[in-house]
Fold these 4 entries.
Entry 1:
Amino acid sequence: MNTFTSLHTEYLRSSRTNETVLVSNKNLSQVFFIYNYEGNSFRVFKNHLDLILFFQDKAEADYEFGTEEELDGFLGEVNILH
């Protein structure tokens, strides 16, 4: 099981945030970027560039979840690549 830690949260509005999260297991770690839209939609990006392009309508999220519980489950089990 992975552990995950919030490294930084940027508030776009009171109910919309960009969060940088470090996901780790015994030997590996990976950073994900999460756009939280009013607690109803969580879009996860593998890199910062895709997050920026998403706001320019030029890219899609790598993953999308409808609840925080689904997001936490994903982060807890995601296969870390590097």
Note: Residues 58 and 82 are 26 Å apart (CA to CA).
Entry 2:
Amino acid sequence: MFSIKSTFFSILLGLTTAYAQDFNPKYANEFLTMGVGADALGMGSAVVADVQGLAAGVWNPAGLLHQTQDIEVGLMHASYFGGLAAFDHLGVSKRLQNQTVVSANVIRLGVDNIYNTTQLIDNQGNIDYSQLQTFNSADYAIIGSLAKPTKIQHLSLGLSAKVLYRHIGNFAKAYGFGFDAGLQYRPSKNWSAGLSLRDATSTFSAWTYNLSPEMQATLLETNNELPQNGIEQMLPRIVFGIAGKVPLKSEKYELGGQLNAEITTDGPRNTLLSGSVFSLDPRAGVYLNYDHKLVLRTGVSQFQYYQDFDQTQKLGLQPHLGAGVVLQNWTIDYAFTRLGLGGEGYFTHLFSLKWAFSVRH
């Protein structure tokens, strides 16, 4: 763990240097795309067409309008990369009136207790463990959302504003903001469509660095460039989805699914379809619901090409599994997925909890 976290420190500084100096939009503020709710992640993140309530503030704010209770409170925890990074979410949504629902979601992605080894070796070449220190690197986002119906029947509109704070110990920090917009069309209880425009005006983060003279010398001696203050930009992405469900022979069973297509605008990516400006990444999910008390889910996402050991190019994808149980006003969801290409990667367990209730007037 010592060497992994030390290496991670170098990677963090390198990435922020590249973003800030070159204004490279690709994968900037990427933690915002990870999503919340084990129910959504168990579906391969294919949810923009029928997501509703609290989690819609992150996936598609238009879905807020369709929450069934007055208030929803939710939280989630996930451990990524073999426990190296922790992802946490806390949110609340409230129906102000029949025509308006608002929400606030807080997200943190953090790597804690990273070893700073830049001062481990003194000027005489001796290892001095008393100089070994640790620090944290974390990304925070506060997302405020609002949803209202439109003049078009069955069509709802949602807007989100995002405030970002990111830091790498006391060496670097960034403040940022951005906006999302979404539409959701629900003409019947059996099918729906959704459109989410994320980072609609681009999402920006302004980085500043505070490196000690000793750290600057260490970076230069190891052939690293000194990071410069600058702006990181995340370009807009469009997510379109269609969802449907059908009751089975027994009225207590319901089978549903959804197809999503995510279009990025920051140039070629390793996706199923990649172009000079636009790239398309499809995802799909299905679920089986029993009496609105037990749900089983599965999904696929992240269709990417990779080279196998024999240097042949193959198409890989990320599978997802999940389940949920409803206990009166409480919903407990679980998802199991893997990060990485081909046979490589880390298996990840995700848990989320939601409490939904109505207020008597």
Note: Confidence is low (pLDDT under 50) at residues 1-22.
Entry 3:
Amino acid sequence: MFNKLYDEIKRIISASKVFVIIIILLTILLNIKLPYYIESSGKMIDLKTRIDVKDSYNSKGSFNMTYVAQRPGTVLNLIIAKFNKDWDAIKKKDVIYDNETIKDENIRGSILLKQSNNDALTVALSKAHIPYTENNLKIYIIYLDKKSNTDLKVGDEIIEVDGIEIKNHKMIIEHIRSLSKDTIVKFKIKRNNKIKVAEAKTFDYDGNTLIGAMLGTIKDVKTNQQVKFNFKSNEYGPSAGFMTTLQIYNSLVKKDLTNGLKIAGTGTIDSDGNVGNIDGVKYKLKGAINSKADIFFVPAGDNYKEAKKIVEKNNYKIKLVSIKTFDQAINYLTDYSK
């Protein structure tokens, strides 16, 4: 009897070991993150769910933004990426700058989204001949180069530079370029709702005096036409700017530019209505194709060339439209004929 009991205890311990090993392996596969991200195509998002325009005109079709889906580089995800042609393993250093944190990247993305929405709104209002005013301009640090020698941080709002009250970002650029290299520039900033003082040392780059900072601007746009943005906290960056402009404009004018179609696209927008290139076009195109979009707008140049290769190689049934400006897109949709 004692031997049977002993054998049973041994069996339970042995089985438990296997169970514990399995749990440890699953924990490693699911939770331990390696210095990679997994990128793939996301779904389309109807911009009517992100932008509310009061008393807007109805549309039979839709304008949609596309995005890059990003997953953590766990062991399991990396194994899946090895066998899934639509998943790409990207080194962390190629996604996040060496001198930055994920928090820095998120702050920059949030500022760029707000800046993009500002530009989209002003372009759409201008094209629809609806008056507006701009005020309360705020200028932020959105990137600091490795060469920068400063205690400025991403997200700092710049109020003064060397005692000069700042009214636009050009004032900062012109002031710094007027200085010689190795000059200490003093900044009055707002950080975490507190006023602070920071410094930066200038350096020479190709004959220009710089501090190694990139700036972003946010302003209040006032108009009688009520427009509200409802982007989610994990949606950021400027790449939906062009499609956002289309959605707002289509809500303001009588003619339905969707022509009853499911329209997707990508590209930045600036205050003059120019459309700029973006990253991850192949994922955004695939997202549009998976969601059965009829048209995909893509910035002219490298983005269009890459998208065209993918469409032709796979014989995708989607109309690819290259655009440089918002006006080109409006003209294309106005003249569109099935």
Note: The longest strand covers residues 33-46.
Entry 4:
Amino acid sequence: MAKMTEPIPEIFKDIAPYDDDQFSEKIASLVREPGFEHAVRYVLPAVDYDQFCKNLLSVKTRDDFQYNVMGPFLEMLVSNTTSGLSCDGLENIQPGRAYTFITNHRDIVLDASFLNLCFIRSKKPLTQVAIGNNLLIFDWITDLVKLNRSFIVKRDVRLVDALNAARHLSDYIHYAIGSRGESVWIAQREGRAKDSNDVTQESLIKMIGLAPGDSTKQNLLDAALTPVAISYEYDPNDYLKAREFLLKHRDPDFKKSQRDDLFSMETGILKYKGRVHFHIGSCINPALQAFPGEARNEVVKESCRLIDSAIHHGYKIFPCNYIAYDEVEGSRRFIGKYSDRDVFEFDHYIDNQLDKVDVPDITPDERQYMRRMMLVMYSNPLRNQLSAQ
């Protein structure tokens, strides 16, 4: 339960989610946006949009929005685009405590959304969600995410302003946890790991450690860093990542466009993901408290090590991960973990995904290169888990 319900201080309004007193105004503005209507009709082709808007306009609080709008929508996505969403480790969330949930990053939109759905199902308090402003291409998208418990990570600031932006974000995270008693979610790195080799960025931990306090170590203890491992059986964006690998292979200066990001978001939301599993680890505070070092850099490195180890241990490994590992390594180490049928279906899946890559004049060698990168993608969770063990 949140400790307080008074409005968010003005100093945080630029990045904070919308408070309940802003909901009616912001939803009324949102439903008038042609871009929002287009997005809703794209995701829900059979929607009665007028009735949908009427239902939205009746929402008065962010809890109503989360439970009565987002909850059913996410359950629909689970039913239509996965073979089931599961979660374990919920016993690690103690009543009355707020946490900084740090996860590996697989899907731009659904990582945090599915985590909150796990919390809805288990009647746990929901978490606020960090989202980069590079994804907020239109004003209505900003309104939508701030209605949906998201706070903004500013990634387009000038170098001279970067430290102040990091302090501001850190102050907000500590305010949400310490003063409001609300957990927050943030990915362990900026952007998704294209090859699924999940490693926590030290800059993220340094940012969280910036909040005013006795020391970096105490600030990190106050944040209650809690690793969460996310496992998708299939990544709908795998072929788009392979495409990006190829384009960067051809041109090291290649950069994705905003349209690429939007298409990745659409693909991740709407396409098939197989089984999806979340493992909620233990808060790292006891291990960090016992760590003898106090210097900032060594505390940050140890925090990253603890988070990475917990995430790598927590993966759920699927047959496709074992198959990819054996193919990349040229081994039969895990042949007992999959059948001939599994191999046939995974090969067929990879070929179908590669057929979607819309790059002209792909040579056989380039297709083989993309296939190799996709296999590395699917083998790395198992590789990291083996290293962690």
Note: The mean pLDDT is 93.
